[in-house]
Please model this.
Amino acid sequence: MNKIKKIGVGVFVSISVLISIGFQSNFFEIAKQIDIYTTLFKELNMYYVDEVNPAKLTSNAINHMLQNLDPYTRYYDEQGVEGARIEQSGQYGGIGAITNFKNKTLVIKEILKNSPAEKSGIKAGDKILKIDDFIVKDFEGNGISTLLNGLPNTKIKLQIERQNKKIEVELTRKKVEINPVPYYTMLDAEVGYISFTTFNEKAASEVKKAFLELKDEGMKKLILDVRSNPGGLLMEAVKITNYFIPKDKIVVTTKAKIEKWSDTFKTREEPLDLEIPIAILVNNRSASASEILAGSLQDYDRAVIVGERSFGKGLVQRYRELSYGTQMKLTISKYYTPSGRCIQELDYTNRDEEGNIPKFSDAGREQYKTEIGRTVYGGGGILPDIEIEKPTTTKTTEALFNSDAFLNFVTNYFYEHTTITEPSTFQLGDSDFNSLKLYVSKNNEAFETDTEVEFNKAKKKAISEGLSLDLDKTYSELLKKIQLEKLKELDKNKEEILHKLTEEIVKRYYYDEGVYKQKAAFDNVIIKASSILYDSQKYNSILKI
Model:
């Protein structure tokens, strides 16, 4: 017996020593790397031939380091902290405009209804040249846009350029609230529709408000639209799920390296409704909290999921305060739906030597069971019960949507058309698609694909090496062929491009509310979901084994 005790004590001591050595070794390596960085930075600052910017160098070093982890682990300097706070709370002091900073140009992308920007006459497409005494083109990073925000009731002066004319505008900032539920309505006598775009601190309360109002109007069936909703606060997803499933049910479980950050989140309240038929709309940009909501209701056989396979973000982040008013958002855990599945798609830990990120779904998707025994799948997002396929969005179409040419075409359309019809009747057609193609063909510099960018780099390289004398004609001919192929490539996503173009144009006249009114009338996914809700036999058959 004593011998056994001695062996047990010896094993325990050995394990303790190994853990201690491992911890000390890890701590030493961290201290070593920090010391290397500190001494390197000191040498740079003292002896580098030109002046260095310590803040910029450090920020670049930190951001480059974090890029090798995942896109959600981020560092925020003092200015970025405020942006993160706004993202969580959904409110800030500002002018109520969404901007885009590119090539040292700050452009208004969207104006919020009833905002100071709208009331002062600022339009989407306006270029901001000056903010008070700050000249926009003198700034390097996109931090210039934060100057638009400030305390409510403070004044701000802008110099803007509109259709090649300069205009001076003075306006007063006010508290701007980002409503996570921009639109809800009765589609007909029975089907209610609620769209919400983010899971900020107001999401659950706004969804509840919309649901109860629609119930008062006679709603007997519900469509929840979380397409392109990137997620947000986990607890808001838990609360919204709670509206439709009983108290004390598991909604999501998180598993972290630190035990105290691993948790199980259950419903805490009595539900609002356990019987109403529900369809949840998702697409490939529905992520995180959107997937928790859709996945948990799918696991409890409480809703039919309609649309495309969702994004596949099964990671949870938490903000951590750092020194000097900075902070970091870092991935602390993975989350699992009630059936036990993690829907994370990209395996950031196992990049290959070229930096490519493998997909968990490539190795096969594991099967799980819902509460009544239906088969669902882990890895690679939420697979809809009713999948509505659409052509894959090409890289060329993505480049178009992110281009200045697309934004400029919408702006020109706005100034060429004083009015458009009501959103519920407004549609674009073939002639509009052809007009867009003609416009971008004449403005190639504002719409470049990656191929064109690399091609132009190669041309410049050839010139610098003196190899271009006999190649100019060949380069020009090849570039024209690339541009023709680029236009042909857009035809593959004609429907998607017209949909996006319609959305951006309607927004100029009727704001977000108009976009949803237009969708309610013409969106094929909404129409499909509504038809499923009316077909009770089909709806019930989907939610049975």
